[in-house]
Design a protein that fits this description.
By secondary structure, this protein is α/β, with parallel strands linked by helices. The protein has 11 helices and 12 strands. The chain has an 8-stranded mixed sheet with strand order 6-7-8-3-9-10-12-11, with helices on both faces. A hairpin with a 2-residue loop joins β9 (about 235-240) and β10. α4 (about 120-130) crosses α5 and α5 crosses α6 (about 165-180). The radius of gyration is 21 Å and the shape is globular. The protein starts with 19 loop residues before the first strand and ends in a 24-residue tail after the last strand. The model is unreliable at about 1-5, about 10-15, about 270-280 and about 335-349 (pLDDT under 50).
């Protein structure tokens, strides 16, 4: 991406974007795979500003969750840097990250595994308050009751343990824990994908209400474009560890500039857009990061790939103000109109 951030602007030469709560600049994350290294995230730049929701979208294995963990300093960077309110925290000692740990929190996909089964709800919610030395015993108790009220739970849950709750209730508890320190940014990794469909809408509405009430920003990791469309301000689409398209969510949904984005949209007929045009359908699985295709890494699955795509790698470029894509033919894909996708598409997101 050559330093291009996902809102389609460039960081000032020689200076960080101090207006962002959290920014990643040319971040790459590698994992050891035997004697080789596997690139899970490659040259990704992203910024999240106050009060907005930025979504990371892509298939399983695209690198979304790895990037989210890297932003939390839970994965080591091979290259690039992380900026918290303009301050470089890439390699700061944990002892100097207290402010960052308070202001950036995470909600995980599976509330069953993210909550300690041995602890009561009261202890789970008190833990971050004690760790950061916030308030005395009475003040912490009052804060815990307020957190439960914020997520729609009563005080009767305080002495119960996670196994005694439904999936939706456990996720409410996990959200309450993330809010305990009054963060400015919450990174939510597939926050509803492990829940029943009937419960997902309730959690989505809760997240929206909490954002308005607490003036938080969200980084939303998801494969679910309808969810992203309802919650996000901007969206960045990831494929094989790279961002291949980004922009305001309404614009990306209504006129995708990359065939991969168009294919993801084809699998989400619940998004309201005109139907009746030819759609792009993905075939096969993403290639292994250990055997990346030459040229455009999407070309083996792209139904509109040309010879150039098989030999040259497109660079992420600004297409229109605030929008970017890594495609040789953004918005002008030969033979297929990507301005909308068919409502007849199978719903498999």
């Amino acid at each position: 991406m050559n330093g291009t951030v996902a809102d389609g602007t460039r960081a000032a030469a020689g200076g960080p974007d101090s207006s962002a709560i959290l920014a990643a600049e040319s971040v790459s994350v590698f994992f050891a795979a035997g004697r080789r290294s596997l690139a899970a995230v490659l040259d990704v730049s992203l910024a999240v500003h106050a009060g907005e929701t930025v979504a990371l979208v892509g298939e399983s294995g695209s690198g979304k969750s790895t990037l989210a963990l890297a932003l939390m300093r839970a994965r080591e960077l091979r290259q690039g840097r992380l900026l918290f309110r303009g301050r470089d925290i890439t390699r700061q000692r944990e002892s100097r990250l207290e402010d960052y740990r308070r202001q950036v929190q995470m909600v995980f996909q599976d509330p069953h595994s993210s909550l300690d089964p041995r602890m009561t709800v009261g202890r789970i919610l008190a833990e971050p308050l004690r760790a950061h030395r916030i308030g005395d015993h009475a003040q912490r108790d009052e804060r815990i009751r307020q957190l439960l009220a914020d997520v729609g739970l009563g005080e009767d849950v305080l002495e119960r343990r996670p196994a005694q709750f439904s999936g939706g209730q456990r996720q409410r508890i996990a959200i309450a824990r993330a809010l305990a320190l009054d963060p400015r940014l919450v990174i939510a990794d597939e926050p509803v994908s492990a829940l029943d469909v009937s419960v997902q809408a309730q959690i989505v509405q809760l997240l929206r209400a909490l954002q308005r009430e607490h003036d938080m920003a969200y980084l939303l990791v998801s494969h679910d474009l309808p969810l992203v469309h309802h919650l996000a301000t901007r969206v960045a689409v990831m494929y094989l560890g790279r961002i291949v398209e980004s922009g305001p969510v309404d614009e990306v949904v209504r006129r995708p500039r990359h065939p991969y984005t168009a294919a993801l949209l084809a699998a989400a007929p619940s998004i309201d857009r005109p139907g009746g045009r030819e759609r792009i359908v993905l075939t096969g699985s993403p290639p292994s990061p250990m055997a990346r295709p030459t040229g455009c890494e999407f070309h083996p699955r792209c139904p509109v790939a040309r010879d150039r795509c098989r030999t040259e790698a497109p660079v992420f470029e600004i297409v229109t103000p605030g929008r970017g894509a890594a495609c040789f033919y953004p918005g002008e894909l030969p033979g297929i109109d990507v301005s909308s996708t068919s409502a007849r598409a199978e719903e498999h997101v």
